[in-house]
Specification:
This protein has helices at residues 14-21, 38-51, 104-108; strands at 3-10, 25-28, 31-36, 56-62, 69-75, 79-84, 87-92. The protein is α+β, with helices and mostly antiparallel strands and 113 residues long.
């Protein structure tokens, strides 16, 4: 039996969107939803993460975790998943990389947090 899967894409090649739309419904541009078996989900994710290029993709699917889901990402974006004692949290990277003379506290928690 399949389970509900959400795959969100940003700036990916058109052929990837076409391939995903064969298995899932594109409910809004770049967001695909479907009920897939684990095998099909994993094969689609392998294909998507291999061709994401300069874009990005996020896969969310049910899993036996405390939150009830797992999260996978491909590509470079400001938001990145971080494991925090078994919970998936999303950390924001700074707009500009921190220099070597930037204090450690400002690298982790930018001013205003």
């Amino acid at each position: 039996m399949g389970s509900m899967v959400v795959l969100a894409t940003t700036a990916v090649p058109d052929h990837l969107r076409g391939a995903l739309s064969r298995w899932m419904i594109e409910v809004t541009p770049g967001m695909f939803v479907g009920t897939l078996s684990a095998k099909v989900r994993d094969e689609l994710w392998n294909a998507a993460s291999a061709v994401v290029g300069d874009g990005a993709a996020v896969l969310i699917h049910p899993d036996d975790t405390e939150q009830g889901f797992s999260l996978r990402t491909a590509g470079e974006r400001r938001r990145r998943p971080v494991d925090f004692d078994g919970l998936a949290l999303v950390a924001m990277s700074p707009l500009e990389p921190a220099g070597p003379d930037t204090p450690t506290t400002e690298r982790i928690w930018p001013e205003g947090w």
